[in-house]
Recover the amino acids of this structure.
């Protein structure tokens, strides 16, 4: 029996501002319903989720305002709309939990990254997020600077200093 190889995933798009602008309370992996040209465009690595969010529409959870550009090698009749809402594939229990948190706690659901898992399936990592105030952003920036300085000092300790 063959042993499975190492689990690898290929990152397509990341929302770097999300961890700066929000406190991420919980994360969830969700599938995403895509058209063929959207998958091909994602495989080329050209997508943006910086201004996108997830919300309830038509009894389902949708990724809104994400940008997946048109696939240039497809004909003009087989193209997709770049900013269309895309259905997220989650279990009903998980969706109800997220929707309840949105209504009760005033949180938002932000996509943190889009990637292909080891089986080649496009996935979205969602974060249940609470907004940061300006003071919180300054504190997190100060903490990040301190961690960087601390690492720099620790690297310097290992060398002989004359």
């Amino acid at each position: 029996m063959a042993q499975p190889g190492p689990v690898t995933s290929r990152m397509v798009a990341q929302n770097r501002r999300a961890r700066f602008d929000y406190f991420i309370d919980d994360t969830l992996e969700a599938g995403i319903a895509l058209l063929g040209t959207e998958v091909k465009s994602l495989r080329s690595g050209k997508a943006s989720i910086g201004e996108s969010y997830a919300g309830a529409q038509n009894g389902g959870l949708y990724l809104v305002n994400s940008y997946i550009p048109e696939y240039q090698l497809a004909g003009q009749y087989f193209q997709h709309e770049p900013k269309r809402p895309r259905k997220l594939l989650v279990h009903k229990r998980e969706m109800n939990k997220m929707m309840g948190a949105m209504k009760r706690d005033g949180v938002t659901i932000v996509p943190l990254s889009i990637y292909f898992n080891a089986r080649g399936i496009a996935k979205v990592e969602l974060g249940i997020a609470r907004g940061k105030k300006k003071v919180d952003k300054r504190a997190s920036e100060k903490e990040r600077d301190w961690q960087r300085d601390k690492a720099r000092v620790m690297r310097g300790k290992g060398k002989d200093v004359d």
